[in-house]
Design a protein that fits this description.
The complex is a heterodimer of chains A (about 160) and B (about 500). Chain A is α+β, with helices and mostly antiparallel strands. Helices cover about 35% and strands about 15% of the residues of chain A. A five-stranded mixed beta sheet of chain A has the order 2-1-5-3-4. Chain A is globular. Chain B has helices at about 10-20, 25-30, 40-45, 60-75, 90-95, 105-115, 135-140, 170-175, 200-210, 215, 225-230, 250-260, 275-280, 285-300, 405-410, 415-435, 445-455, 465-480, 490-500, and strands spanning about 55, 80, 120, 140-145, 150, 165, 190-195, 235-240, 265, 310-315, 315-325, 330-340, 350-360, 365, 370, 390, 395, 400-405. In chain B, α4 (about 60-75) packs across α16 (about 415-435), α9 packs parallel to α12 (about 250-260) and α12 runs parallel beside α14. Classes of the chains: A alpha+beta (about 160), B alpha/beta (about 500). Chain A: InterPro entries: 2Fe-2S_ferredoxin-like_sf, 2Fe-2S_ferredoxin-type, Adrenodoxin-like, Adrenodoxin_Fe-S_BS, Beta-grasp_dom_sf.
């Protein structure tokens, strides 16, 4: 595991160096993917049916377009999820945390270290957790259900308080 | 809390994002009228006599998130935000590091809240100075205290007042343009800086001290701080904590940023990490990943690079005494007690071994935590925890009084923590209103009454549209320098721009 992290981080640090030259470090990997939408206007991507279950357990079903991020969908479709996407998809918070079914989770694109870093601060972290801003709709996701974590109570807070130096 | 800005030289893109990111206005179904109307005219439109009126003390993240939830949940609720400074957003403006612009994106949502027809912002009004909590309670159905943590935990060691010794709060306030910290003028002519504390603020300070100037000059760091950093000779920053690597308080993102700093290498002591690799397996994921990342720096460094700048954690050390230079005026070093751990894991305690170690440094920044201060004798305050005693945001034994953010739970956590915590307080308030515990049947005059009182005291508030004038001026000044903004550093000048 240590080796894996090591290798990954080295890969990432190369990426950061590349970014620094153009954008400075660690930008937004995928801020609201407007370009996807623009593209889709000229060549419409597949439509996919998605279900979101919010904090209250309410299920909301929407048609999404291939290439949108799950955060885009919540924002564009005005889904009622409190405080979703506070940093606007810039990998600077964990408020677009979503939980997937295992079968779906395993098919998602690999998770970057920066996303894991933010997920580590998320409420109700599970092994099937991802950030909605980093998950891009693909045709195979049709009929997928994603859940907003229920527990608003942060498991980390008491621990953090004890951590205080 | 702790972001990069040529990232925003994608500025065009970011503006587009901003425009398209209108979640709150949609959620709130804001009407289109407010911008053109004056605040009082808006109130006539929206705030009918029977509206529940809530005021929030403090225009930072906690205040805005509490307001957001209240406005969204009840279409009749009027929410006024009082802020001591003429400018809003609290630590999002004055605490979040200049190279963390992504975190500041929350300002877009806060701005939508402030522009909501049932929300008003009153800047330049100090609660506890210009107006009392009692007066606010008389004018509103409920008062929410969200004024943050304005004080510092003290090191309580001798020499703390020597030149070259600063609290991280003041140092951060200095480079972020907080008006009260502009006289700081830190001397950065030394090579080694020591930061006491290993939280995210400590890492922000270390990163700002070691970041390449080309990188910082594209952020909203003040020009004054940038000039000082240009002349800086600081090339080594030691970040000292009283416990071990497994108890470190910062989060992984901040450590990764240190590791990724260009032309800078990590300078850790392998002995600090003895036995650590063996216990990794049983750790919760966040702690495990953070520890693995620190262990990685040991390996990467074995090769030894020719870099001029270094940073490193120093563990199991507590401050004993700040050591003066020959003239007795300026810091020359810090005497540290060598600790050992009793117990293990998050609960482990640091106990002194009796040994000490002296570390030379010309700059000492204590970053051992903030604390809230009592606002007013009528408001309960727990002097041990430095918080307002409360039950889910409901201030104990004080009807109509609520709290959110750091004053509620202590100065810890990231922005999402404050968001959730503020939503919780808003839900508590709404529940009390629904159950009748919070009496909304009586008429309350709200801002009308407070504005009249302020007038008799010669206090003029800064409205949100007046803040927007300051904002535009700052952005204009920034453009000339290739920065997202150049902050106005002086309250008097802020007021002049606001009222121009």
């Amino acid at each position: 595991m240590a080796l894996r992290v090591c290798v990954r981080s080295l890969i990432f640090s190369t990426r950061v160096q590349l970014w620094r030259e153009t954008l400075s470090s660690r930008t937004v990997i995928r801020p609201f993917s407007r370009h996807h939408e623009l593209q889709s206007e000229s060549s419409p991507g597949s439509k996919v049916l998605l279900h979101f279950v919010n904090q209250n357990g309410t299920k909301m079903s929407v048609m999404a377009t291939e290439g949108e991020s799950l955060l885009d969908i919540v924002i564009n479709k005005n889904l009622q999820i409190d405080g979703f996407g506070a940093c606007e998809g810039t990998l600077a918070c964990s408020t677009c945390h979503l939980i997937f079914d295992e079968s779906v989770y395993e098919r998602l694109e690999p998770v970057a270290d920066e996303e894991l870093d933010m997920l580590d601060l998320a409420y109700g972290l599970t092994k099937m957790s991802r950030l909605g801003c980093q998950v891009i709709v693909a045709p195979w996701m049709n009929d997928m259900t994603v859940r907003v974590p229920l527990g608003v109570k942060d498991q980390r807070v008491p621990q953090e308080a004890k951590n205080k130096q | 809390m702790c972001l990069a800005l040529s990232r925003l030289s994608e500025c065009g893109i970011m503006r587009n994002i901003k425009r398209s990111f209108m979640p709150l206005s949609r959620l709130l179904q804001a009407s289109t009228c407010p911008a053109a109307l004056s605040s009082s005219a808006r109130r006539l439109v929206s705030g009918c006599a029977s509206s529940p009126k809530v005021c929030i003390v403090g225009g930072g993240a906690a205040g805005f998130y509490t307001a957001q939830h209240l406005l969204k949940a009840r279409s009749d609720m009027v929410v006024d935000i009082y802020e001591r400074l003429p400018v809003p957003f609290g630590l999002v403006r004055f605490g979040v590091a200049p190279d963390h612009p992504e975190v500041k994106n929350v300002i877009n949502t806060f701005t939508q809240t402030a522009q909501h027809e049932r929300c008003s912002f009153f800047g330049n009004v100090g609660v506890g100075m210009d107006i009392s909590v009692e007066e606010l309670k008389n004018a509103y159905h409920a008062v929410v205290l969200s004024y943050g943590a304005d004080g510092n935990r003290s090191m309580r060691v001798s020499g703390e007042s020597l030149e070259g010794v600063f609290s991280a709060r003041d140092f951060v306030g200095w480079y972020n343009g907080l008006p009260s910290n502009q006289e700081l003028c830190p001397d950065l002519s030394c090579e080694t800086a020591v930061v006491l504390g290993q939280g995210n603020v400590a890492l922000d300070v270390a990163r700002i001290l070691l970041s390449p100037l080309d990188y910082l000059k594209k952020t909203d760091i003040t020009e004054q701080a940038l000039q000082s950093l240009k002349a800086s000779r600081v090339n080594r920053v030691l970040i000292v904590g009283r416990r071990g690597p497994l108890q470190i308080a910062c989060t992984i993102k901040e450590v990764r940023e240190m590791i990724n700093l260009p032309e800078t290498k990590a300078d850790m002591l392998p002995s600090d990490f003895e036995g650590i690799a063996e216990v990794l397996k049983g750790l919760p994921r966040p702690r495990k990943r953070l520890t693995e990342l620190m262990l990685m720096t040991l390996k990467v460094n074995e090769g030894g690079q020719n870099t001029c700048k270094r940073w490193g954690f120093r563990f199991l050390r507590s401050p004993v005494e700040v050591l003066p230079d020959a003239d007795g005026k300026k810091v020359a070093g810090i005497r540290l007690a060598v600790n050992k751990l009793e117990g293990s894991g998050e609960e482990a305690r640091a106990l002194p071994t009796g040994q000490t170690q002296d570390v030379e440094c010309g700059l000492l920044i204590s970053s051992i935590g903030y604390k809230s201060l009592p606002l007013d004798p009528t408001v309960p305050f727990d002097p041990r925890t430095f918080t307002v005693p409360n039950n889910m945001g409901r201030v104990l034994h004080t009807a109509g009084l609520y709290c959110s953010g750091w004053v509620k739970r202590g100065p810890t956590g990231v922005i999402a923590t404050t968001m959730n915590d503020s939503f919780e307080t808003a839900r508590t308030l709404l529940k009390d209103a629904a159950s009748g515990t919070l009496d909304l049947s009586v008429y309350k005059a709200g801002a009308q009454e407070i504005t009249a009182l302020l007038k008799t005291r010669g206090v003029r508030a800064v409205s949100f549209s007046e803040w927007e004038k300051i904002n535009s001026e700052e952005v204009r000044r920034g453009e000339a320098l290739g920065k997202p903004r150049e902050k106005v550093l002086d309250v008097k000048e802020m007021l002049e721009v606001a009222w121009s």
